[in-house]
Amino acid sequence: xxxxxxxxxxxxxxxxxxxxxxxxxxxxxxxxxxxxxxxxxxxxxxxxxxxxxxxxxxxxxxxxxxxxxxxxxxxxxxxxxxxxxxxxxxxxxxxxxxxxxxxxxxxxxxxxxxxxxxxxxxxxxxxxxxxxxxxxxxxxxxxxxxxxxxxxxxxxxxxxxxxxxxxxxxxxxxxxxxxxxxxxxxxxxxxxxxxxxx
Length: 198
Fold this sequence. Notes:
Low-confidence stretches: 8-19
Mean pLDDT: 81
Number of strands: 0
Distance between the termini: 74 Å
Shape: globular
Strand content: under 5%
Oligomer: single chain
Number of helices: 8
Radius of gyration: 32 Å
Structural class: mainly alpha
């Protein structure tokens, strides 16, 4: 029985050795070719970091919510507001307040002077007035400038981070309709969640 076992073990070892000899040198001494086989490159898209939605609406929405469909210009204005918010080194909550305010003031359209329908000389995304010191017409109709001007006002509001959107917006805007900002908080938060990391 030892002899049979010994022959089996030696036979297996011999096969392994022979396989190594035949496979090894053939691969080791292969002549390199100038042609190369193209390798497949797989692009993996990294997932965008998720925005903490609890941070976007820390107090929940107040009252009935409104929503509008946005066109390309309005979406570009959302992105401009977000970019300006980042430039001002402010967070996602500031962007929600800014976008909610612009939704109420202009439906995210960069409005020029509306003639008789105009509230005094209010213009731009935030309906800011040159005569109230917001800037020139050219400045307040520039989405980046008008957003930075709004955010500068927001920064001066003590505790704005902990306020409902409508109170923070009203403190900056001093609107005749202070409660109207609240209706846009959910859509503003959804837009920030969608575009903050895009």
